[in-house]
Design a protein that fits this description.
two-stranded antiparallel ribbon, alpha/beta, binds ligand PBG, binds zinc ion, TIM Barrel, 39% helix
Length: 311
């Protein structure tokens, strides 16, 4: 009877699994703070995604790394048509077609030598000058075949700029998932190790959101909608369930929540010590994210959750 009247249900088609793609074929590097997660070359990614598809994971979100020695102040390697992400997109779409939705993270931080998400001018990130390389990166992902581009840089105006460029290139069908309310968070630590994207100086508080604010998230959602975002995102997820609920109430757009690396690591660490029951904690966490109002759940837990039937 409890199942009959349960208010929240999660289905596999809601899940997005992130992947860290390395530029070198054959490479595979486990992420030390994220047990079960490894960065890998394109050739290794394909069988992994095929196995995940069999579990019901229909959507991936790709992050990349540049070839060694190609990080530069302007992050130009992000828009390289032969980059790891671009090659992975092409191979995945070729292999799996419409069975797989391929999303790409659009940002510069893994490609700039200073590790910031935009270009630096006079010691600060220059919002407007950063738009052009971001647009070029999104375009190169779209040309490789990406279904969805997801700008995570948090520069103002980038969603509209990317939409205009995609349309001008005849790519009206490519959707934009905007990282709408991305907070300056301590929970990104393990990801920055995996993506090699930590800022060498300073932090991201100049462009990411202040964790004290929720009305600002609604303003960000309004701007992203005006700029024609197709889906919105709140990130991280569990410390910001109130933000998920607020954005859900303020917008009718599909809403994603990103259960980020540090949220995953914290659960895994407690489980390893025998302090938490992984199956029950992961189920409770993912249900909380859905109950708060997320339609799409981006989480490193989804492979284990589906394989082990934790939901
Ligand atoms: C970079 C980016 C980050 C994440 C996604 N894209 C980290 C950051 O802003 O430093 C975090 C993902 C995670 O922690 O799982 N633009
Ligand atoms: Zn970034």
């Amino acid at each position: 009877m409890r199942n009959l009247v349960a208010e929240t249900h999660i289905v596999p088609s809601q899940f997005v699994l992130p992947h860290f793609v390395l530029p070198t074929d054959g490479a595979e590097e486990p992420v030390s703070a994220m047990p079960g997660i490894a960065c890998m070359g394109v050739d290794r990614l394909l069988p992994q995604v095929e196995a995940d598809l069999a579990l019901g994971i229909r959507t991936v979100l790709l992050f990349g790394q540049p070839a060694p020695g190609t990080k530069a102040p302007d992050g130009q390697a992000a828009a390289d048509d032969e980059g790891a992400v671009q090659r992975a997109v092409a191979r995945l779409k070729d292999a799996f077609g419409d069975d797989l939705v391929v999303m790409t993270d659009v940002c510069l931080c893994a490609y700039t030598d200073h590790g910031h998400c935009g270009l630096i001018e006079g010691g600060e990130v220059d919002n407007d000058r950063s738009l052009r390389p971001l647009v070029e990166t999104a375009l190169s992902h779209a040309r490789a075949g990406a279904d969805v581009v997801a700008p995570s840089d948090m520069m103002d105006g980038r969603v509209g700029a990317i939409r205009d460029a995609l349309d001008a290139d005849g790519r009206q069908g490519v959707a934009i998932l905007a990282y709408t309310a991305k907070y300056a968070s301590a929970y990104y630590g393990p990801f920055r190790e995996a993506a090699d994207s930590a800022p060498s100086e300073g932090d991201r508080q100049g462009y990411q959101m202040d964790s004290r604010n929720v009305l600002e998230a609604i303003r960000e959602a309004e701007l992203d909608e005006q700029e024609s975002a197709d889906m919105l995102m709140v990130k991280p997820a569990l410390p910001y369930l109130d933000v998920i609920a607020a954005v859900r109430a303020a917008s009718a757009k599909p809403l994603a929540a990103y259960n980020v690396s540090g949220e995953y690591s914290a659960v895994k660490a407690a489980v390893e010590r025998g302090w938490l029951d992984e199956a029950r904690v992961v189920r409770e966490n993912l249900l909380a994210i859905a109950r708060a109002g997320a339609d799409v759940i981006i989480t490193y837990h989804c492979r284990d959750a589906l394989r082990e039937r934790w939901l």
